[in-house]
Amino acid sequence: MKMAAKMEVDEEPGTSNSSNSSSVMASSGTTGSVTVALHPLVIMNISEHWTRIRAQEGKPTQVLGALIGKQKGRNIEVFNSFELLFDLVEGDIVVDKEYYNTKEEQFKQVFKDLDFLGWYTTDGPPTESDIKVHKQICGINESPIFLKLNPLSRHTDLPVSIFESVIDLVNGEATMLFVELSYTLATEEAERIGVDHVARVSTSETTESSTVAEHLTAQHNAIKMLHSRVRLILDYIKAVQAGEVPHNHEVLREAYSLSHRLPVLNSERFTEDFYNQCNDVSLMAYLGTITKGCNTINQFVNKFNVLYDRQGMGRRMRGLFL
């Protein structure tokens, strides 16, 4: 399997990149043409990608990847991302297009409504090397966006910047420059739960669990304690029935009273609600089975029509030469 060549980056983003960054950025009066909504899953994917490669290489290493999502007019929403392989040729990054085509084909099978929107990388401010990579990405998408995450940032703000490219005249020559775009974080309910559970940041030495984990742990402990108490009462009653323990009418009355405090599970209302819920679940499963069967029949009919048309065309062609 082909392995990607890696580029080593500095431990601390120094001031040497500042002058290089200013030379690839458009003037401050230039504004972006699109608005970007970024999902937290993309940030977690990039962070995991960089952390994994760093652990494998033993040093901070630049990584590259593709951004996929939806674009409606001037509104871009980035939903997901995947890694890209690249090689270093005379110090320049060359993206592996064959690997990209393979990954895009795989993603299209799962996320049919998502399109390639741009690329991401890690390190400090944009550099001339990023411009060269961006020109390669323009061969895939005419106007890609560029996301850069600085994993070594010491600021409390989110170390993510998003750019788009513009063509401007510099010393009389047409030059590609970056324009920084403003973005917002767009989350869904499932993402909020996942972010709270996975991306919880702890500033102390002890690990801090998420709200979801705390809630589930509390429920588990409560159910476990209830089970142990009920089991103890049940064992006591069985021991009394077997004559192993003398009768204690006060304890038996408490157990009898406790059993009658439980919700009445044999009521008409409970039975009705219970069967309604069971019917709803069964109906959803039944509809899913019907939909799958209809899809299978539809595919069969399409294949049958294609085969029948080919056979009919073959007979007609043979008839022309007879």
Question: How does the SSE layout of this entry go?
Answer:
Blueprint: E1 7-8, H1 16-23, E2 35-38, H2 40-57, E3 61-62, E4 64-72, E5 75-84, E6 86-89, E7 92-95, H3 97-110, E8 115-122, H4 128-137, E9 145-149, E10 160-170, E11 173-181, E12 183-185, H5 189-198, H6 211-241, H7 249-261, H8 268-321
Parallel strand pairs: 2-5, 2-12, 8-9
Antiparallel strand pairs: 1-3, 4-5, 4-8, 6-7, 9-10, 10-11
What can you see in these coordinates?
There is one protein chain. By secondary structure, the chain is of the alpha/beta class. It is 49% helix and 22% strand. The chain has an eight-stranded mixed beta sheet with strand order 11-10-9-8-4-5-2-12. The chain has a two-stranded antiparallel ribbon with strand order 1-3. The chain has a two-stranded antiparallel sheet with strand order 6-7. The radius of gyration is 31 Å and the shape is elongated. The model is unreliable at 1-16 and 201-206 (pLDDT under 50).
